[in-house]
Each structure stands twice: as structure tokens, then as C-alpha cells.
Amino acid sequence: MTMLTLPELLSEIQQQRGDEVVISTMTAGLLAPFYSDSLRDLSYTAPMGSAGAVGLGLAIARPDLRVLVIDGDGSLLMNLGVLVSSAGAAPANLVHVVCHNGCYSITGEQPLPGPSDLSFSTIARACGWKSSFDVASKDEWRSCLSIVLNEDGPHFVSAKMEVFDKTLVTKEMKHSATSMSRRARPGFRNLRQELQSTHLES
Amino acid sequence: VADVGNRIMAELAEVDIHHLVSVANFESAALYRACRAEGSGFRVVEACREGEAVAICAGLYLGGSNAALIMENLGLFECLDSIRALLVDMRIPILLFVGYVGRPQRGAAANWRDRSAESASQVLLAGRWTLPALRLADIPFFTLDSLSPDDIVRTAWSTAVEREGPVALLVENMSLM
Predict the structure, then answer these.
(1) Which positions ≥6 away from A180 have C-beta within 8 Å?
(2) How far does the CA of residue B116 sit from the closest CA of chain A (Å)?
(3) Which of A84, A111, B19, B54 is geometrically suited to a Cys-Cys bond with B67, CB 3.0 to 4.6 A?
(4) Which of A44, A188, A191, A195 to mutate to test the interface with B (most CBs of B within 10 A)?
């Protein structure tokens, strides 16, 4: 079995998504703008560990929208309590995906603390998430994504994957208009504006 | 106690705040209880840690909902980076009810008097750090106590909206108001 890669994970989201909001962070946040041109994207990298909680807040505020969080494993470890908070609030429209590559990819691939066989899905299950999946290949991710995008959650997915070679993301890519419009402050403002307009229409 | 919590909750509702994010705290317990009561019209979200609570507030704002956060000043120190990166840099207006543990000029606050000298010292240190931390983060602050004007919540929220950022209400103890 060939292990899942970050580009494959992002590409498959683009294939299957409809009007879901996608919040991506860390290395996934750097790469996401090159796989999606949706106005419903938000990519940011600070503060580390906050994407799951931002997604939780948004899912509570807008139960009419499905919110997909693409988190890093190091990030999630910085705020592991969010798995408990999300399970407690239990918004049916929340999907939290952790890219599990075993290292802090964005800061130079330092290994994560703890055992190499750490199971985020087991932790999520113990916290009380409605469903908790493990995927490690492109096919498994494709099948899992079709479930979590269409059935009530909250859903948690641990996606075991290879470490992404960040040198493939060039400075020009990072500073492209598309990337900048999705990232940090403009990303927040653009997404809020986009969601407000759809709120008014509905 | 319930009256104070209900009064502040009503003031929050008047400025269109209907979400309360809570991390363990003593000083704003009356507001927490009022918002948790059935039929309050509030959604309470419990968070495990203050930085997480700040991010939940940011997500609520992203979805068009204003939020208030209750925590202690001890938690304020924990979440300064989240406040910096999310609330200040993203320009998100939020009301922060910050328990003012160890408020200067009050000694070790009344509810801490029976603690050991070591505990009292820790409390006073937290009190001394509070205003410098808020000033460092450029967060405007008001004091919420029995001497506060009736429209303090509205004033604080207007400031948050005008500045597009967080504003703190320092709470010594709602149960003493």
C-alpha cells in the first residue's frame, strides 16, 4: 500500500467538496491555496494549535454549514484539549482531520514527543466523538471523505501520511494573490464576508 | 449572586452577544450560571484552556456571532499569544471577562485570606502582572465591581467594536457586587 501524501489529501477534498468551509493550518495551510480556489477557504499558521478550536466556534455559529479542519499532528498536540471540547459541544457539522506525519513539519521536521504509534483516533474515540477514522492511503481517504462530508458528525479523521517536502512550495507560491487572500487577516475577513453574504441570502 | 449574573447577561444580550465561552474561573461564576440556565437564550461553550477559548471565540465571530469569554487573569497570561495572533491581529472584537485575582490595593482578595503566605504571595503576583499584561497587548480594560456604572458592558463592547479588537472587563468577584 502506498502511503497517503498531503497533496493527495488536499486534491481529494477539492474533488469531493461542495460548499463546505475548509480551514487548514501549518504545512497544509501553506499548500491548500494551490489546490482550491474556493472563497470558503481559510489558511493560517498562527497560533499553532488553534485551528480545531476556530473550526469548533464556526461550526457552532453556523450549523447550516459543514466545517472541515485540516490540522497538523504537532498542532493538535499543542491543544489536545480541543478534542474534549469539540466532543462536548458535538456540532454535527464539524469534521476535524489531523495530518499525522509524526513531526513538526513546518519548523524543520523535529519528531513529535511520545510514542511513534500514538493513535489520535483512539484519543478522539475516548473523548466521545461520534465517529473516529484512521486512513493511510489515498483510497481509504477517498472513501472516508465521502462519509464525513455527507453524514452527521462530529467526525474525527487521523490521516497517516508521508512528510511533505516543503521546498516544493516556493516563495512565489506563498506570496501569490490567491495564497495571500486565503491567509491570516485577509483570509479571516474574506471568509467572514463570504459567510455573511450567504447567511443573508438563506 | 444570580441577580448580578442575570443583569450582566441581559446587558450582553442587549449588545447582541449570545455566546459565552468559559474556562474554569471563580470570579464570573454568577454570569456562567445565568447563561447556563434553561431558557437563557445563551449558548455556553466550555473550553479546556484559555488559548483554545480565544480560538473558539474567533471561530464564532467568523460565523457571524459575537462572543464573550470568561477566565481568570492567570489564564490571561496563558493565552496572550492566541490573543495576539487571533483577536488583535485579525481585529476581532471580543469581551474578555477577566477574574482579577490579587487585585492590588485589596491585599490578597477576601476569598484568599485563609490561604498560606505562599499562596497569598502567588495571588498578589498575579494581580501585579495583570495591568502590565493588558497594556503590553494593547487591550483596553474596565473594572467591573460594585462601583461600576450601569452601562459598563455596553461601553466596553462599543470600545471593542470601535477598536476592532478585544476589551477586558476586570472582575474582582461578581458575588460581591
Answers:
(1) A186
(2) 31
(3) B19
(4) A188
Cell of A25: 493550518
| DSSP bridge pairs for B70 | B22, B97
Contact B64 A196 (CB under 8 A): yes
Whether residue A63 lies within 8 A of chain B, CB to CB, comes out as no
Helix or strand (DSSP H, E) at A85:
helix A81-89
ipTM of the complex: 0.94
CA-based end-to-end distance of chain A: 44
Torsion region of A78: left, alpha or beta (phi above 0 gives left; psi -120 to 50 gives alpha): alpha
Query: What is the reported pLDDT for B116?
Result: 65
A126 touches chain B (CB under 8 A): no
Residues 6 or more apart whose Cβ sits within 8 Å of residue B121:
none
pLDDT tens readout for residues A75-94: 999 999 999 999 999 999 99
Find the length of chain A: 202
pTM of the model: 0.94
| 3-state SS, residue B57 | helix
Q: Is the pLDDT of residue B1 over 60?
A: no
The neighbouring-strand residues paired with B44 are B20
Decide if pLDDT at A200 tops 80. Answer: no
Task: Tell me the pLDDT of chain A averaged across its residues.
Answer: 92
Which grid cell is A119?
A: 493513535
Element (H, E) at A182: helix A177-182
Buried b (16+ CB within 10 A) or exposed e, A93-107: bbbbbbbbbbbbbbe
Interatomic CA distance for residues B169 and B144, integer angstroms: 6
- Give pLDDT, residue B106: 63
